[in-house]
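Task 17 of the worksheet. Students: predict the tertiary structure of the chain below and write it out as structure tokens. Keep your answer in the requested format; marks are given for formatting as well as content.
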Amino acid sequence: MKTILISGATGMIGKKLTEKLISKNYEVRILSRQNNSGGYLWNPSENYIDKSAFENLDAIIHLAGSPISKRWTKNYKNELRDSRIKTAGLLFKTARETQSNIKTFITASGSNYYGASTSEKIFVETNHHAHDFLGKLCFDLENTAQNFESTGSRVCAVRTPAVLCTDGGMLKELISLANKRLLSPLGSGKQIISWIHIDDIVNLYIYLLENENLSGAFNAAASQFVSNREFTYALAGCLGKKIILPPVPGFVLKIALGEMSSILLKGNAVSSEKIKNSGFEFKFENLESALENLLT
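Model answer:
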């Protein structure tokens, strides 16, 4: 039985992943900022982790990170970086200090690695990172994760797009808007949305954990990418709702959300052929079937 340490275990993906790992008889250790949580205490702002969490540890899955769906003030940009990169550095520092024989380090990254841009290009893992804020954030996070290779660990980075889950994330917010009859396309509606079903992203993490010959970056997205307009109408149809409002003008989102609006008004398509060629099978490759599974 392998022992896995998870950061960000209380998040949308972390909860589902923890449940699935436990059901598969893994021992799961959770890093928590709360003393009474039943997990192992850590306080990244003070560079503290309970080192006993690293005893006889096989792997770390790093999911911690503040949500990107808030206005990016200068202070919040620092929080986005620290919550991902500083915490990854703290995990590495502690693993080295405790001389843990960790075989695998898997970090969450983002399809934003390739930048917020709308084009006909389909990005693969060998493409260079973008030089916008999120592109640099993902690049720096993956670089920090690579430090684990010096301890003999293999390192995987999961470049994740929009995760479809009714418990959180983009879909939960859109369902709320649809129920209030406020759902409509954003900007031109032509921007690409790459996505993955929550079950597939959980299974992908476990697949990487269990296939020790795999390392490097992996795009974690269903093959069918769609436009914002197509996604909006598919969701409305699945909910039995009608779109009655015109598209939200891009300038309105830019005024309201500032730089963060770029992730709503632009988007890229990514290829998941690398992970599929290794043997991983997605359960949900079609948007309508994914939405029906989650909503009906």
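Marker's comment: The longest strand covers residues 104-110. The domain at 3-295 is CATH 3.40.50.720 (Rossmann fold).
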